[in-house]
Fold each of these.
Amino acid sequence: MVFTNKVVLITGASSGIGASCALRFAALNANLALVGRNVENLNNVAGKCEELKGNRPLTIKADISIDEDVQRIIVDTIDRYGKLDVLVNNAGILIMSGITGDIKNFDKMIATNIRGTYLLTQKAVPYLLETKGNIVNVSSVVSMKPVPGMMAYSMTKGAMDIFTKCTALELGPKGVRVNMVNPGPVNTNLFTVNSLSPDQKEQFLEKISELLPLKKLVKSDDVAKLISFLACEDANCITGSSHIIDCGVMLGDPYA
């Protein structure tokens, strides 16, 4: 599995799954365009990628909830590399919010998790058609399994799932594959619990891991490996599909 001369655009690349994807694709010799809001973290990730590959990725400070930023992401990527082979839609925000929560929280998550992803994909499609490239979207198991306090976030991930399938159906006849990964709990900065100290957060996550059949949380590196497989030629017959990576979350607790 190699991505020599392939251009891979990754959103949310400054931390978590996105950062792991950047390192994974760099190790596989891809040319990278890394998008994030935190410039310091983004540059740190780019530096690690440079150590792996030998040349520095393109870094783009951008917020995909802002239309002008979305356009700039595509323009900068094409200006640098002249093409696009793989789009990894990873950027997302999680705010704990239920039906009685502030509607502004819902709007923020819709703007990034759905609208921004939709618009970026729309802008990327003409270039993906030229290369017969592919898209990998990062969803979540909460699109299929309700979790208390995560109603609004779950709705955005449910929308991501059907967005993936509809896009795959539309672009498949034109040679572009579209798939998604649905991770369970991953210990990243996205998965935070309000008002908990770092020690309390660690204890909380340990308790969650003990409830899972595999007795551990998903690692962002493992998600990145799955994403890179879906993006490679070995997966040339896979499109419109969901790939759960959750250490058994969806199996439920047999002793509950």
Note: DSSP finds seven helices and seven strands in the chain.
Amino acid sequence: MSINKAKVSFVALALAASSFVAITSATTANAAPTGQWCKGVKIAAFPGGPQGGVFANNVYNGYVQAAKDLGPTVKYYFSDWDPAKMVTQWKEAIATKPNGIAMYGFMGPEAAKPLVEESFKKGIIVTTLNTSLVDLQAQYSTKGFGYVGAVNYKAGVDLAKEMVKRGNLKAGDSAFVWGLKGQGGDRGQRTVGVIDGFESSKLKVIYQEIDQATNTTPAAGGPTFAGIMAKNPGVKAVVTDHGGLTSTAATYMKAANLAAGSVYFGGFDVSPATTAAIESGYLNLVIDQQPFLQGYLPILQICLTKKFGFSGLDVNTAGGFVDKANVKTVAPLAKVEIR
């Protein structure tokens, strides 16, 4: 989906929701429609990472804007990208009796299933962002369970294949993939997609799982990156399957004493540091998931379901690639953590 199409889809959705509310308000109350039509609804929202962290802050900003526009009361749970912590916080959120929960699917379907079942049994709408829970979404979609985010496996494959094309990579070249293949459910599938995309082009993949310390604090991974690159001096391409690690690309390259452009470096998500790394040449290509929408739209989803009984929406936010040719368009919005 192109960036422009994603914008159009979002605007259309928002306008449709506003128009519906305006018509309903005027009809049922025989009065002029009012703003913040979701007032009185309580929502537990998960930005995903540490407070103020890359990607998580864009999602948080989307949540905050939706709360400002629509009027629900929102409580935020920051999880340090730790699936076990998300599960614990989900249980805590259920205990507060919200009307809805906006949650990542990082913990995978087995861990999520009893919590989804308990939530809906207690009248709590659950919807996911960033990482889907496909079977649970299908089971509860009529009750408001939707998904906002990328199709993760496809995003991984698409990035790898685009890097092969743009980076002039050839069969037999080595690619270092630093990812989260070990995470449950859909999240790990993006890393699998990257690996499959490279291997289908006959590249040799060197894989390293992101440890939890680096997952939470990307700068902690500098020695790991430098060590792997030193042991594999022939690496032609690098993928960091993590927004925070992607934003740290320039730091990693400098730690490994590698010049800008000496390897073709790709990753995910946009941030101020990411756009700066693209402009400097240390980072070459990223997929923009538009995380602001991954925050805004789940709040809208819960409000629409709670107020009007709408079923779950499924919205693909993977807006396209960002590189040196178009980064100047995105950078101003990345600076204020909207893109």
Note: DSSP finds 14 helices and twelve strands in the chain.
Amino acid sequence: MSEQIPYEFRRLLADSLCEKPGSYIMEQLFSVFPRTEDLIEATEQELTASIKGVGNIKARQIVAALSLARSLMPPKLPSYKICSPADVYRLVEPELRYAKREHFICLFLNTKNVIIAKELIALGSLNACIVHPREVFRQAIKRCSASIICVHNHPSGNPEPSPEDVEITKRLMSAGTIIGIDVLDHVIIGDQRYISLTERGLMSLTH
């Protein structure tokens, strides 16, 4: 998916080049390279050939600034659509395989169940992790999420949900109902296996 260049990125690049955001060179730069992915990969040759007034020295400065920006940009998740709890397990299990403490992770999804972001919400002890709904939904709202999937591990290797696991899930579901962001599932990861609270029938607020 093409991404238009955010204002903050434009401003940072202009400042690093000692240019005003609305200067001729900056306007031409963003006109020739209107998408972030194009601009980030621009070469000195492309810059000197396509932007009037940009010589070798200025092109070198722009490429250096873009290189720094690229190194600071967080890696993007691949376009990953969640169709089942097994998809969640395959995505998250590798990073939790040897974890000695509980990790509570949220997957933030768009309306097509494609992951927008994956965030570690809380880090706990060997057998407990305190999760605050406000932090979960602050992150969800920040990313304009349509829905979320919760994931956490049991370092003991046994993924059976505890009463506390079910309780926090229902608290999150209640908050999500008020806010308008669905909690689709809570997947608990153990030793080479997982349990989905949705598949277990534990995602109903009426139970």
Note: The CA atoms of residues 41 and 195 lie 43 Å apart.
Amino acid sequence: MKKVKMQLFGSLLLSCDSGNLGEEKLRSNKLTRLLAYLLIHRGSALTHHQLIEVFWEDAGKNPEGALKNMMYRVRNELKALGKEKFICTVPGAYRWNPEIEVETDYEAFEQMVAKLRATVDQQEQETLCRSIIAGYKNNITAKIADESWILPKVIWYQSAYLDAVKQLCTILGPEERWSEVEMICHHALQVDALDEDIHCYLIRSLSGQKKYDLALTQYEKASRLFYENMGIQNPEKLQVVFSQITTETGEQRTDIGKFLEEAGEQIGMQGAFFCDYQIFRQIYQMEMRRINRLGIAEFIILFTLRRKYRIQTGEKIDHGMIEGMNILERVVRASLRMGDVAAKYSPIQVAVLLPICTYEAGVQVADRICNNFRESIGKRRLELLYELAELSPPG
């Protein structure tokens, strides 16, 4: 009985004692797909209707003629393997000749995966993992990989390959065979660049070889990759690996995720940022440079507290005024947005900086604070005045 070997991983290739037939000889994507389909489904007859539905769903008026012509071309190309009748015609259907045995790499791959899942012997597991990794060859040929009828297999094979990579890494890691882990992971990331576990194994392998600079570089590369492609800021497993590296090296650094967590610990505070006047001045100067560069409008409000019905300046700072300023600070915090900045300018004045704001919006903010202040002071004989001005760059 004649035997044909079929390679589906990497590129389609049929070979036997008489010759071989590969993608480069077929010179047609549709021819390659049809031949692969016939071989993958060689256990049954494929009706004309089934083949037309798969390959000529957008065909013109004569899909039967197109199928007949394509089958003629496939048979003609198969002559490179010998004079045998490789494709049989049965009523209303075609099929691969059941008398011609076919040995395939993808079925051998499936059998190895099944054996790996069934065995508990670590040495045998390592051998099978290596065989699965070697046999994968970057999945099924790209000529057919995006076809709907093969896509479930493509996904399954990739998943099985990555599982084998990770299982082999768990075997090699405790034995400190880090250079092997590094090589395996580099290749696996070409298959799936967003597999977090494999990034972690690669970083550990570099660290295990004391290539700490490369390990940190790989960590930074992986973090950037996950953020740019998935919007994930430092996945949890990567952070654990990063902590292990910095512990081993004694390096006093943290990752951006930890920095954001620590820097934002007080972010739960609502309302404006109420700060010391010296800090306010620095923020004010930064905003001046920003509006000069971007050409945007920002406003500042200066609130002045005074006793009601008193016109003269030089207010006496007694307990009532101190209490009033405390109320004003609470009102300002509660009445403004997060991002607005406020500071006590003098014993009876509060300055408020409103980034990205119009004059009209500034008036509304000031009026709202005055109204909220009046509602908060009860019967105290105090009133709040304000001045509103646009920030203008000097010169």
Note: The radius of gyration is 37 Å.
